[in-house]
């Protein structure tokens, strides 16, 4: 079954948002934190992957400034992993934001999420620094020119 990707500027309708939040909660265990934080993000973009009408993955990002887009959160349902869904969602997000005039995409990941780190490097991201706001849980900062 082919993956259908959809880009949604701003928040999706409540039914779709609930499906995304349910998947987010399953993966990250913090959908409440996400909801409160997301409301303050400028030019929020949801890139959602569907199979047979079911949400199987998502990427969420927002504008840092008119040139830089931040790819913030993403996940794939554990029953649909290792099928290239995260890669397809990332590529779809990058095509969309490039078309909107962004020149650079930035993201952060942690060493414990190695698959994400490897995928980002494989698809053109460069490590540009480390975010040590939480010294016991540093984040790797990556950027990619669009």
Structural summary, described in words:
The protein is an alpha+beta fold and 146 residues long. 32% of the residues lie in helices and 35% in strands. It contains 4 helices and 7 strands; from the N terminus they run βααβββαβαββ. The protein has a 7-stranded mixed beta sheet. The longest helix has 15 residues, at 14-28.
Main features:
Aminopeptidase, Acyl_CoA_acyltransferase, alpha+beta, GNAT_dom, N-acetyltransferase GCN5, seven-stranded mixed β-sheet, 146 residues, 4 helices, 7 strands
How is the topology of this model organized?
Blueprint: E1 4-9, H1 14-28, H2 31-38, E2 45-51, E3 54-63, E4 68-76, H3 85-99, E5 104-109, H4 114-122, E6 126-131, E7 139-145
Parallel strand pairs: 4-5
Antiparallel strand pairs: 1-2, 2-3, 3-4, 5-7, 6-7
Helix pairs in contact: 1-2
Summary?
The chain is α+β, with helices and mostly antiparallel strands. It has four helices and seven strands.
Helix count, per DSSP?
A: 4
Contiguous uncertain segments of 5+ residues: none
CATH class: Alpha Beta
At CATH's second level, what is the architecture?
3-Layer(aba) Sandwich
- Terminal CA distance reads 29 Å
Give the count of structural domains.
1
